[in-house]
Amino acid sequence: FLPNLKKLDLSHNNLKSLPDSLVLLDSLEILDISANNFDEIPNIIFSLKNLKILKISKNNIKHIPSEVKRLNSLKQLDLSKNNIPVFTKEITTLDSLEKLNLSRNKIKIIPVEVSNLVNLKSLRLKNNEIVSLPYSISKLTSLEHLDIISNEIALLPSQIGKLSQLKVLKIDNNPISELPASLSECTLIHTLTLSNTKIRKIPDFIGKLTNLSTFNISGLFLDSLSSALDSCINLSRLIAVNNNFRRFDPVTFNFKNLTNIDLSSNLIDSLSNNIKFYEKINTLKLNNNFISEIPDSISLLKNLRSLSLNNNLLLDIPVNLVGQKQLKYLRIKGNYIPSSRIDSLKEKNPKLKIYD
Fold it and tell me: Which residue of 36, 165, 205, 264 has the fewest CB atoms within a 10 Å radius of its CB?
C-alpha cells in the first residue's frame, strides 16, 4: 500500500471521508484534500505523524478538533475557505508550524497563545470577522507575512514593531484609522497595503521603510503625500486608485524608480511635461480621470509597455507615442478621439494593440 509515499493529492474529488488504510502511509509528508465535501477533519489524518503539509481548504469544516495537536511535525496548514468560527488553542501547540492559512472563515478572536507559534513565517487571516489582534502577536519574531485583509480590526497592536522580520503587511478593508509608530521599526517591509481603510494621512515614519517596493493606498481620499516618503527609494509599484490626486508629476509623486503605477479614478486633469522623470515605468494606468491632453514628452518613457487612459477627455493621442516600439498595449476606451484618427494610429504601428 505504497508505504514510501510522501505526497498524496486527493483534491477536487467530492470526497466525504478517507479510508482507514491511510494510516499505513507512514512516510506521508504532504496531504491535499482541498475542494471536497468534508464537514470535519477526518480523524485518520491525526495518525500521520510525519505529515509536514496539510491542505484542507474549500470544504465545509466547522470545527478544529483538539486532536490537531498530534500533528507536531506540521510546517504548513491550510484551512482557508471553510466555515470555522473558532481559532482553537490547540493549533498554537504546533510549534513547528511555518505557514498558517485561516482565510475566508468566520473567526472572531485570535487567541493570546498564538505567540507559541515561534517558527511561524506566514499568517493569513483575510476575510474573517476578527475585531482585534492580541498584543502577543508581537512575539512572532519569525513572522514575515501578515494578511488581515477584510476583517473588522480598528487598531493594530502598538507593539507590532517587534515583528523585526516582517516583509509583507496587508491590512486593507479594515476600519483602521492610524498606523502605530512602532511600524517604522519593521524596516524589512517591502509590501504594504492600506487600501479602503480609514487612514486619511500617510504618516511621515513610513519614509523609514526604505525597502518598501509595493505600496497600495487606494480609497483613502488622499490629495497629497508627505515628502518623507521620498526616502522610499526602492518604491517600484504604487497603487493609488480612488483618491483625490489632481496631478501626476514629480512634485506629487517623487519616486524615480517606479515601474508600475495606477492612479485610476482620481481628479487628474493634466500630466506634467516632466513625465520623463519616470524613466523606468513600464505600466501606467490613468483610467477614469479628467485628462484632456497627453504631452509629447510621454514618448521619452522608453520602458513604457502598457498605457491605460480609458474614460478621460482625450481628443487625440501623440503620434510619436504610438510609434514607440516598446509600447505593446494602449487602452483609450471612453474618450473623444474620432474613429478615423484611431484607425490612422493603428496603421502607424500595426503591432501595437489599441483597445478603443
Answer: 165
CA 325 vs CA 214, 290, 298, 319, 322: distances in Å: 27, 27, 14, 12, 8
CA 352 – CA 283 distance, rounded (Å): 15
Q: pLDDT tens digits for 327-338?
A: 999 999 999 999
CA distance 225 to 237: 15
120-129, 133-142, 225-234, 255-264: least confidently modelled range: 225-234
Query: What 3-state class would DSSP assign to 330?
Result: strand
Beta partners for 99? 76, 122
DSSP codes joined into one string, 8-24: EE--SS------GGGGG
Over residues 244-260, the mean pLDDT reads 92
Please provide residue 156's backbone torsions phi and psi, each rounded to the nearest 5 degrees: -90, 145
Please say if the pLDDT value at position 286 is more than 70.
yes
Contact 16, 37 (CB under 8 A): yes
In the block, which residue shows the cell 486608485?
Answer: 241
Q: Rounded to two decimals, what is the model's pTM?
A: 0.95
Taken in order 83, 160, 157, 74, the sign of the CA dihedral is positive
Instruction: Tell me which amino acid residue 92 is.
Output: T
Query: How many C-beta atoms lie closer than 10 Å to residue 72's C-beta?
Result: 13
- Using DSSP, how many helices (H) and how many strands (E) does the chain show? 2, 18
| C-alpha span between 214 and 285 (Å, rounded) | 15
Residue 207 predicted with pLDDT over 80: yes
Amino acid present at 76: Q
Query: To the nearest whole number, what is the mean pLDDT of the chain?
Result: 96
Tell me the C-alpha distance between 149 and 197, whole Å.
10
